Amino acid sequence: MINAPEIVLEEEKHMNEQDESVDSALCRGCGERSLHTFIDLGLFPLCQTYIERHQLDNMEPFYPLHAYVCNRCFLVQLPEYVAPQNIFTEYAYFSSHSDSWLQHVRASADALTKRFNLGSTSQVIEAASNDGYFLQYFMEKGIPVIGVEPAVNVAQVAIGKGIPTVSKFFCVETARRLRDEGKQADLMLAVNVLDHVPDINDFVSGLKLLLKPNGVVVVEFPHLCKLIEGNQFDTIYHDRFSYLSFTAVEEIFLRQGLFPFDVEELPTHGGSLRIYACHRSAGVKPPTEQVARLRAKEEAWGVKTMDYYASFRKQVEDTKRNLLECLVRLKRERQTIVGYGVPAKGNVLLNYCGIRTDFLDYLVDRSPYKQGKHTPGTRIPIHSPETIRDSRPNYVLILPWNIKEEIMDQLAYIREWGGKFVVPVPTVQVYE
User: Does the global pTM surpass 0.90?
Assistant: First the structure.
């Protein structure tokens, strides 16, 4: 029999072996052998791969969901466990299905058009343009647009709206082809995609290549510091290869010849950044006060120290226990519980917490693409939102917690029968 001290020693030995294997990997950002564990959530299915009814008896592949942080450039990253072609060729996420997101991008299109004096002779190009959700608002203004979207099923929706769309992964090669065809951008957009590319340096180099000499690149992405502060562990999944601070992104942009001259902190997706950049060599625009302010804030938070990343695991484990305790209590009280929304983050939370039909009777989603299918891993059936009115559940678990106000407004009618909402992140809360 092995006594307790020997078990501890064995665990420490295993951790040391893990550290050695981590150190042998190269950082995606700076190329150094400098990676250390940020969070290891275990094995997961691909969170955007929904299961057809005839596939329910088939096995699914599961992959590690183990994120690392670089102790040199502080880029948090997920190894390329799955090739992007296996994730994005057919994709389940359509940006136009969120009303609040459409309001955000409509307002953004208005502001960007005014700030950079865009008009009929300008060119707006978006990398990962999805279903044309953003470009449609520039097109309404008579501004020429081009989308680049790798998911064929999603690109076809944009094309159906009359938005010119190239169905390719955005990279240096794609940028070069467009440039050779005479296409370059006055405004180059990359919204919620920078974190989804495995070769982030190649992607940023492509942005620079396709940018006119006086053009501007605008990128948006969820802010790593908000992920840590808000306990947003469910936003770590296989099609997000990087988790980005301003500190890490600024270094990558400067390395590729782009100069971030302005930055905004946004409330979207639980807290995001919008960075404005121009060619580093072409009469660099003076940086705004916001750049220095955010750089100083991140340094004060400890972004450049490994201690900053060390406590994340405990708060994640606490959230899992608290959510399961809440659901177990409700089920023991014979309450009916369903879930609203099946985003990628929702599938991460369901799989990490082991929530299946023993807790949730079903899920609903506004996307017709997901309706009639089942969730990856947990195999919970997905219906249309109208099912909630028919079955009158006691509780609705909101998985897209970042738009909880929008969802609670949509489902305000559940209060007619005393229904309540459960929001799992950043802490478990019940709303009447």
Answer: no
